[in-house]
């Protein structure tokens, strides 16, 4: 299987260990995840696919920009399904995105807190 569906282990930004200058951007991304997730859930529940597409597009760019290429890769697949009108299949991948965001929240907090104290 691809890397997006492997395990439930915490996921750390690829940029977190490279340079502390990336940490504020990573933290900003992390702090915004709960609100984006809630907005995504509301849009999905109301079947507002245009809004879902906008939120996924935002995640795609932001996630990749702070060292989470898995977010970008999964978001690209979701966007393609939404454009093609395959909302049910996109919904399945949105569930996968939710699990991926859980892993990011766990991993990013671990890596950023250890970088500050280490």
Write the layout of secondary structure elements.
Blueprint: H1 23-45, H2 49-65, H3 69-83, H4 87-117
Helix pairs in contact: 1-2, 1-4, 2-3, 3-4
Report on the structure:
Helices cover 73% and strands 0% of the residues. The protein is mainly alpha-helical and 118 residues long. The termini are far apart. The N terminus is likely disordered.
Q: Which key phrases capture this entry?
A:
118 residues; single chain; 4 helices; disordered N terminus; mainly alpha
The 3D shape can be described as elongated
Task: Tell me the fraction of residues in β-strands, as a range.
Answer: under 5%
Provide the succession of SSEs.
Answer: HHHH
CA-CA gap between termini = 35 Å
Radius of gyration from CA coordinates = 14 Å
Report the helical percentage. Answer: over 70%
A few lines on this structure:
The chain has 118 residues and is an all-alpha fold. 73% of the residues lie in helices and 0% in strands.
């Amino acid at each position: 299987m691809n890397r997006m569906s492997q395990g439930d282990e915490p996921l750390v930004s690829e940029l977190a260990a490279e340079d502390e200058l990336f940490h504020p951007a990573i933290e900003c991304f992390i702090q915004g995840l709960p609100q984006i997730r809630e907005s995504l859930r509301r849009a999905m529940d109301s079947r507002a696919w245009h809004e879902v597409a906008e939120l996924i597009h935002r995640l795609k760019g932001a996630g990749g920009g702070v060292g989470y290429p898995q977010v970008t890769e999964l978001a690209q697949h979701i966007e393609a399904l939404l454009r093609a009108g395959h909302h049910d299949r996109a919904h399945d991948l949105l569930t996968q995105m939710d699990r991926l965001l859980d892993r990011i929240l766990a991993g990013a907090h671990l890596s950023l807190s250890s970088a500050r104290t280490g």
